[in-house]
Give the backbone structure.
Amino acid sequence: MNRRRIIIILVLLLVLALIGLAGYWLLGGSSGAGDAAGNLPEIGGEFNPADPGNGEFLAEATIPVSDIAAYYVYADESVVAVHRDGTIDRVASTTVTSLSNKPVENFASASFSGDGSRILVLTGNQPRTQVNIFEVASATWRVVPGTFRDATWAPSGSQLATLTPDTATGKTAIGIYDTALGRTVRTVVALALGDVAIDWPNAQTILVTDKPNYQSAGSTWAVDVASGRVTIAARGKLGYAAKWDDAAQTALAFQANQYRSGGRTKLIVGGIEQAVLSFTTIPDKCTFFGMPTGEDEETPYVVCGAPRDQDDLQRKTLPDAYYRKEFFSDDVLVGVNLETRSVDFTIATPAPVDATDLQVVGSTVYYLDRITGALYKSAI
């Protein structure tokens, strides 16, 4: 074999090696740079959606209405439901009573005050969102003057936290609007913010979180309501999306895989990544709650809608494809004990149900089907 042929062979081998190395890094590499799980311990062991555990399949929805965008379950188990067109019904047993039968133009979203007495209905799009308040008892509407980027209820009472754009400074003011007084009572702080959402999990803390995008890293900032002091609650990574507990200390956060589809769901405590779930889900499909374990004692849990087909989920461009409704999943409900960091229960759902807006009331978990907007419930 002559020297020229040897050189050609060596060059070809080098080219093949470089191609293989490039593919290796594009798929994440062994260092964890592209794998959202990294080297974190795993919660839950092997995910087995075929084993429904202590759950039972539900033959019918909880209430005889669908296309629900938001709901509230009262102590007598009656439900007030806001539909995707902005109409509102009260449902007691199988009796449906209309509270507002006129569709809301440019309906965007709805949420209930802590006691269920008022409904916040947002219309339009950021940065010119209109805030509307519906009084459940009197079945009356009123409009909050001005336009906002976002608004959310306080954990209790009649106040809202609002994001108001200031065209003069280019900043966004985080303000407190009292719906009972009909005015903004104070500005907490003004910040330069991108595309964000706002949450008010407890009396002391307002959370501001970047909107999820698989191409960019997001974070959550904690704003002290009394002082306006801003601290970083969690510094996210690609595709960051998070669900926080009421103390704003524990979160489930999604992180997209770098350079490829899919991702993993992590447990964050005190701003530090602690573990990764054995199943992947979008945090909006989860809720935190306390499981009674004795007199005045509770064990912290989180329950999530987890797609049965995890392999198919990992082929999606997450989390964007979820929020754009490019796909719908068939879920089971999975309960994670946050003290032992173990999966304690799974609950089968009527197949297919894409579970979202989970709420735990007593020993029952309620959830909406993202496909039909029907409301279901399961005993825990």
Observations:
- Helices lie at 3-26, 310-313, 320-323.
